[in-house]
Structure formats: C-alpha cells, structure tokens
C-alpha cells in the first residue's frame, strides 16, 4: 500500500531536554530560536522563488510586447471568460482586493495614479448612491402617495425607525454621512446621548437629499412643517426651512382645494346649479358651451380633493372624521372654553399690524366603560325632578373624605418637590409612588384619547353664546341625524 508523502523531509533529531528547571527553560528557548531561524530561512527561500517566478512572468510579457495591464484586462474582463481564475486566484481570498485597492492609493504611487483611482471610486460611490435613492423611491417608504395625512400617518414618524431603514437600504451613503459627522475626538469621547444626536443629524441630511431626489419622498418634510406650524413658527421661518429642504413649503401646508375643470369665465364650483344658458355669448370661433354635470364630476372632485388639499387641511379633515366616528357611538363627553391668540407682524406697517383673534374651541373624548342606557336624558330629568332640596350637609365632606383629601394634597406637594427638586430628591421617587393615596372610586388605568374640534367665532361668555356653541358642536359632529339622538 502506497502512502502519501510526508510534508517534511523526515524526523528532526534533537538532544533530550534534561537538567534542572532553569536549564530546561534555557534549552527550550534555544531550541525555539533554532526552529525559528530554520523557518525564516525556509520562508526567505520560498519568497525568493516566488519573486523569481513573478519576475520571469513580467519579463516574458515585456519580451512579447505586452504589459501587466494587458494581463489584468485578460483576467478581469468578463468577455474573456476567466471567471474561475478570478475567483480561485483572487476573490476567494477575502481582503486581497481591499489590500490591492489600498496599495493603488498609497502615497508611494504617483499622483496621477492616485487621482485616477480616487476619481473612479467617487464615481462608483455616486452611482451606488443614485441606485440606493432609486430603490428608496421605488419602495414608497417615504411617500404619502394617494393616501391622506391622518393620525396614524403622523404617529408613524420616528427618527430611529427612519435611521434603521436608511442604514439597511442606503448603507454606503449613510456610512459616508457618518464619516463626515464623526471626528477622531468623537470616537474617543462620545457619550450615548451624543451618538443618538449625531444619528439624528445624519438621518435628517439623508432625508433632505432624498426629498430633493424625488419630491414624492416628502414624509419627513410634511411632519416637520406640521411641527413648525404647531409650534407657532411664522410663514417666513417655514419658507426658509423649505428652501433648506427640511420642511414642506407654506403653500403646500395651507393649500386649499381648487378644481382645474374650467367654465368659460370661471372655475367650476360643485355646488353651482347647472345654468340654462352660457354665462356669455360665444364667438363664432369658440366651441359650443356645454354646462358640466355635477353628478358626473363628483368622483373626479373627490379624487382631486385628496391630491389638492394641503397637509394641514388633510390632517384637519382626518381628525374631524375621527371625532365624528367617536360621536357616532353616542358615548362621548365634550368641553369648551374661549381662546385668545395674538398674531404679531414681523414688520408693522400701514395695514399690517399685530392682531388678536378671539373664539371658542372644544374637545371631545370617549367615555370609559359607559353604555347607551346610562346616557338616557329622560332618566337624568326624572332624577333631577325627584331630587330633594340641596342642603349644607350635601356640600360638606365627611370625616373619611376629609382624610382622603388631606392625603391627596400632601401627596401632590411631595410629588411637585420630587419632580422639580433635582437629583437629591429623585431618590425619594419610589417611596413617593408607594404612598400614592387610593380610593374605591378609582377607575381602571387607561389613556383617554382627545379629539379637538375646529375653533368657532362664537362668544361663549353669554347664554346665547353657550347655546350657539352647543349647536356648533352637534353640527360639527353630525349627531342629530343618528338613531340614538332622541
């Protein structure tokens, strides 16, 4: 039976290691050094042999009028079908391509060579960035599309989620942005809060550029303009933010629906009656006027409404629809109060000064674990009519109620101290939570959603004004025509 040849020339005969501990240690060190010298000599011989082979190949290429570049083109150009050679001899060794690219831009190479490689790398990365932008746009992840801006749309905005999405789908671009925002000092001394802030800045820059790549990628811009408007930013501020690509324009925010289907002299209003005659006599060269049919325009107008409405009007309409849905159940409560707002002019000139607006606003919310039977107005009137006259005993608190009120007031004061007293009082938070007063009338822990209604130009400080506010609330919610209204 034939065996495979040994990888070495045979056994290496050495003297045994004997003596005391110190002598054995010295002998082991000497043998290790001897073995190392033999290995280095072998490697040097092997390296010399490889260099000789490579020099021979280069010399043979030169003798035949070829260059090393011709050999590279032959191996790496797909048209020569050298895929097996490329994989086995080059790409299979992970990191070899990276090392060679690093050598090409090393300072030892000429400036011309470095410039060419750097220019190619920049163009390649630019192509990757454009491809990533096209993929993000095709995915419609940052687009509103034909949908409307509603509560779910706004609640879905999350910078960490957008950052994770961009890290996955635009990895190279985000790597470049992160390098622009990170210095060597940042790597040494970065705190977790600073890392999160830098991620937010990088994500904001990427979203602004993607919004410029395609104006359909307007998710972040629409959310930012809503935030600016809600925070009281003036029109000029929003315009500047829009020019910087951070937010949507003020016009797109407040755009009202306009219909592009024209009559001869004015735009179509869907509530206009069909005229029996044209608004003017057409000329001989004009087309015969045909009045539009509102029934046929209904579908078109509804489609145009979602597209032409500004962001603010879309959100307002969606929230009003949600409030009407809550009111349709009949299990809701409402509150209202007056509002006073001052709109200041940046530059006061004739006809453009500060103005104060007064009105009334209202909010509704769903009732917790209520039923329609408990909402009976007849039962309320009957109980009110059968109630005994009010006495002083009905107002004064009992002894247990006074004790509970005292505990609640003490706990409220302690909570204010812990919440706003700084770090030294923070350590009492657990004890404060344990001392929270409880009562049998406590309802289950839950979050009450609030649904604001539009503001009205009604003075609610009078009896007539209060009645008008109630009528306005009912009209806005559309509850008068429901089955449970009576």
UniProtKB/TrEMBL annotation:
Disordered: region residues: 265-286
InterPro entries per record: DUF6589 (IPR046496)
Pfam families for the chain: DUF6589
- DUF6589 domain: residues covered: 386-480
Source organism superkingdom: Eukaryota
Please report the name of this protein according to its UniProt entry: DUF6589 domain-containing protein
Source organism per entry reads: Mycena albidolilacea
- Lineage of source species: Eukaryota, Fungi, Dikarya, Basidiomycota, Agaricomycotina
């Amino acid at each position: 039976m034939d065996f495979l040849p040994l990888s070495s020339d045979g056994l290496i005969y050495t003297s045994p290691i004997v003596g005391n501990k110190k002598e054995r240690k010295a002998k082991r060190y000497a043998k290790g050094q001897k073995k190392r010298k033999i290995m280095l000599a072998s490697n040097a011989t092997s390296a010399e042999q490889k260099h000789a082979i490579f020099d021979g190949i280069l010399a043979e290429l030169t003798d035949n009028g070829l260059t090393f570049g011709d050999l590279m083109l032959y191996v790496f150009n797909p048209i020569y079908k050298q895929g097996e050679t490329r994989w086995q001899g080059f790409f299979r060794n992970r990191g070899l391509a990276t090392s060679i690219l690093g050598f090409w831009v090393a300072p030892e190479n000429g400036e011309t060579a470095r410039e060419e490689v750097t220019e190619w790398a920049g163009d390649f990365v630019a192509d990757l960035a454009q491809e990533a932008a096209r993929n993000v746009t095709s995915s419609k992840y940052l687009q509103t599309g034909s949908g409307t801006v509603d509560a779910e749309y706004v609640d879905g905005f999350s910078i960490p989620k957008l950052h994770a999405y961009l890290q996955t789908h635009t990895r190279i671009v985000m790597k470049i942005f992160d390098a622009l925002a990170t210095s060597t000092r940042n790597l040494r001394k970065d705190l977790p809060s600073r890392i999160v802030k830098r991620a937010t800045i990088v994500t904001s820059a990427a979203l602004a550029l993607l919004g410029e790549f395609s104006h359909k990628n307007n998710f972040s811009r629409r959310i930012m303009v809503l935030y600016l408007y809600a925070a009281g930013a003036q029109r000029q501020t929003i315009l500047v933010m829009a020019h910087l690509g951070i937010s949507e324009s003020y016009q797109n925010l407040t755009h009202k629906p306009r219909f592009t289907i024209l009559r001869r002299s004015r735009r179509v209003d869907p509530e206009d009656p069909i005229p029996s005659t044209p608004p003017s006599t057409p000329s001989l060269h004009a087309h015969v006027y045909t009045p539009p049919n509102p029934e046929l325009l209904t579908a078109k107008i509804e489609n145009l409404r979602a597209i032409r409405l500004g962001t603010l009007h879309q959100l307002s309409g969606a929230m009003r629809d949600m409030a009407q849905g809550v009111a349709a159940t009949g299990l809701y409560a409402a509150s209202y109060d007056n509002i006073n707002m001052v709109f200041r002019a940046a530059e006061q000139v004739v006809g453009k000064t500060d103005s104060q607006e007064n009105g009334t606003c209202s909010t509704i919310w769903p009732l917790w674990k209520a039923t329609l039977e408990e909402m009976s107005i007849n039962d309320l009137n009957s109980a009110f009519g059968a109630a005994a006259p009010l006495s002083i005993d009905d107002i004064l608190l009992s002894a247990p109620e006074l004790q509970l009120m005292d505990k609640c007031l003490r706990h409220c004061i302690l909570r204010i101290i812990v919440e706003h007293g700084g770090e030294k009082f923070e350590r009492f938070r657990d004890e404060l939570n344990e001392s929270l007063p409880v009562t049998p009338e406590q309802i289950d822990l839950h979050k009450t959603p609030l649904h604001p209604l539009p503001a009205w130009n009604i003075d609610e400080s009078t009896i007539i004004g209060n009645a008008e506010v109630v009528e306005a609330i009912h009209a806005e919610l559309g509850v008068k025509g429901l089955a449970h209204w009576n």
